[in-house]
Amino acid sequence: MAWLVLVVAGLFEVVWAFSMKQSEGFTRLWPSVVTFAAMLVSFGLLAWSMRFLPLGTAYTVWTGIGAVGAFIVGILFLGEAASPLRLIAALLIVSGLLLMKLSSSA
């Protein structure tokens, strides 16, 4: 269950990163509200998952999901570049996340 909660926390990290971009430096009300609400949910779920998972594993997986998720959202919705080097970098992050999961006893 802790792993599922951690994945959801990571997905909410993607939401807040995207909405923060849409807030234009917190000058737009509703994207700013979404940013802070998603942050609260993301941090809360991360904190809960850390009760059962090692700190290093939980934090690494959370930030990795957020980083790769934001990368994908940037490509799909914001027209950001999907160059071969950026794709390889994202693949390496995902590989690291899988290794963290495999190495965890929780």
Structure description:
- With 106 residues, the chain is an all-alpha fold.
- It has one domain.
- Helix content is 81%, strand content 0%.
- The protein is built from 4 helices and no strands.
- It has helices spanning 2-22, 29-49, 55-78, 84-103.
- It is flat and about 45 Å long.
- The termini are close together.
- The model has no long low-confidence stretch (mean pLDDT 95).
Radius of gyration: 15 Å
Question: Per DSSP, what share of the residues sits in E-state strands of 2 or more residues?
Answer: under 5%
**Percentage of residues assigned to helices:** over 70%
Oligomer classification = single chain
Largest sheet: none
Unreliable residue runs: none
**Counting H and I runs of at least 4 residues, what is the number of helices?**
4
User: What characteristic shape results from the CA principal axes?
Assistant: flat
The number of distinct structural domains comes to 1
Q: Estimate the mean pLDDT confidence.
A: 95
SS-derived structural category: mainly alpha
List the helices and strands and how they pair.
Layout: H1 2-22, H2 29-49, H3 55-78, H4 84-103
List the main descriptive attributes of the protein structure presented here.
single chain; 106 residues; mainly alpha; transmembrane; cell membrane
Give a quick summary of the entry:
With 106 residues, this protein is mainly alpha-helical. The chain is 81% helix and 0% strand. Helix 1 packs across helix 3.
